[in-house]
Amino acid sequence: MEKINSKLFVQNCYIMQENARLRKKAEQLNQENQQLLNELKNRLTKQQRSGNMQEGANNSMMADHYLSSSSNNPNGQNSTNN
């Protein structure tokens, strides 16, 4: 009985060591995952800001085009309305 108890004790020690190793690995992977998630969020935020800037530039270009086309006509009207 004592021999079986000793074997179980050794197995238990091995399992506890493996459990500690796996917990440490899981913690490292979790930290890496959090870093990658933060990087992804930062990239998405930058893309959204860039998209908003491009949208603003497009709107500005459209306004410039509208203003330049209406400034060609002294009355500020389209030529079809004359």
List the helices and strands and how they pair.
Elements: H1 2-71
Task: Write a brief caption for the model.
The protein has 82 residues and is an all-alpha fold.
Describe the structure.
InterPro entries: ZPR. Residues 41-82 are annotated as: Disordered. Residues 45-61 have a biased composition (Polar residues). By secondary structure, the chain is an all-alpha fold. Helix content is 85%, strand content 0%. The protein has one helix and no strands. The chain is rod-shaped, with a radius of gyration of 34 Å. 0% of the residues are buried.
Would you identify the regions where 5 or more consecutive residues have pLDDT less than 50?
A: 71-82
Oligomerization status of the protein chains: single chain
What is the number of E strands? 0
Radius of gyration: 34 Å
Question: Secondary-structure element sequence?
Answer: H
Binned, the helix content reads over 70%
Approximately what portion of the residues adopt beta-strand conformation? under 5%
Q: What's the mean pLDDT score?
A: 81
The best one-word shape is rod-shaped
Instruction: Give me the secondary-structure category.
Output: mainly alpha
Number of helices: 1
* Distance from first to last alpha carbon: 110 Å
Largest sheet: none
InterPro entries: ZPR
What descriptive keywords fit this protein?
single chain
